[in-house]
């Protein structure tokens, strides 16, 4: 009896790792998700990618640089951005990878970035609103906005507003908003947008990602007939620096990295939304793994989208009709 137990245990001890080894490539292929198959070239096209000094943004920049675009790497940390840009320039041979200072947690910085960009560049064909923060301890931006809402939504809302005329003049043009599956857990808490009454950092992230989806929806509606499209996406669960504010998440991300997308894999849907020929006239949609994905009912609520738009304008002191 004892020996058969030992035999079974030994059998399991040998067969489980063997099974895992055999299955590993299939698991990795599944985790990697969709891949952008487009071979579109981007010579003569100007692209802005926010938060492109690391993670998904950096891989998106690398891909678009390889396609020949002039890529503006818009980042708050210039030294880190220069290191990323020079790596991309060296690898792709594209010298048109340019670093510009942009801190989305400060509307003054956003305005300065846009002013300089509009003075220096005559065209803008692709704007990728990629930068993001997650799980921040309670904090506010320079303008007093809750950090997730301020950086992930309001910062990109203002940036898009300031650059929209240039996008329209350069049309066909695309706006790509990097949202998240986490939008499913979000709601727009108009009565407490800045989390002053209650704050949960996980939920704050979800709310801001829902705001990305609603912004995209309303923006696309307003852009009908302009040849400027706006789409949102979920990149997948990606092994990046996004979890930097949570010690526990950082360890979980390390331990389970095998089951997470690499930043390159995570960039595929952003690249797809930016270049895929079949999306030329597709707008207001939400993608994941390079295909349309399910949007939560709250993300399809046009009334909330309109209200969020006008509240965002009020907070930023802009008029955007
Ligand atoms: N990773 C995932 O599993 C996942 C899943 C769903 C959605 N997303 C979304 O994907 C996007 C990219 O995230 P990631 O995973 O690549 O994370 P990441 O590696 O942390 O990159 C985030 C980027 O945003 C920049 N950023 C943060 N705050 C900024 C600010 N105030 N001004 C300008 N730039 C700022 C960061 O710059 P610094 O390096 O200077 O801080 C960094 O370049 C985010 O919008 C995120 O919500 C990620």
Automatic annotation (TrEMBL):
The kind of enzyme this is, by top-level EC class, is oxidoreductase
Which Pfam families does the record match to this protein? Answer: adh_short
The catalysed reaction is: all-trans-retinol + NADP(+) = all-trans-retinal + NADPH + H(+)
Task: Quote one Gene Ontology molecular function term.
Answer: all-trans-retinol dehydrogenase (NADP+) activity
Q: Which UniProt keywords apply?
A: Lipid metabolism, NADP, Oxidoreductase
The source's superkingdom equals: Eukaryota
Q: In which pathway does it act?
A: Cofactor metabolism; retinol metabolism
A single GO cellular-component term from the record reads: endoplasmic reticulum membrane
Q: InterPro entries given for it? A: NAD(P)-bd_dom_sf, SDR_fam
The EC designation for this entry is 1.1.1.300
Q: Where are the transmembrane segments?
A: none
Name a biological process GO annotation.
cellular detoxification of aldehyde
Q: Which family does it belong to?
A: Belongs to the short-chain dehydrogenases/reductases (SDR) family.
What NCBIfam families does the database record attribute to this sequence?
A: PRK06197.1 (NF004846)
Know the name of this protein?
Answer: NADP-retinol dehydrogenase
Q: What species is this protein from?
A: Aquila chrysaetos chrysaetos
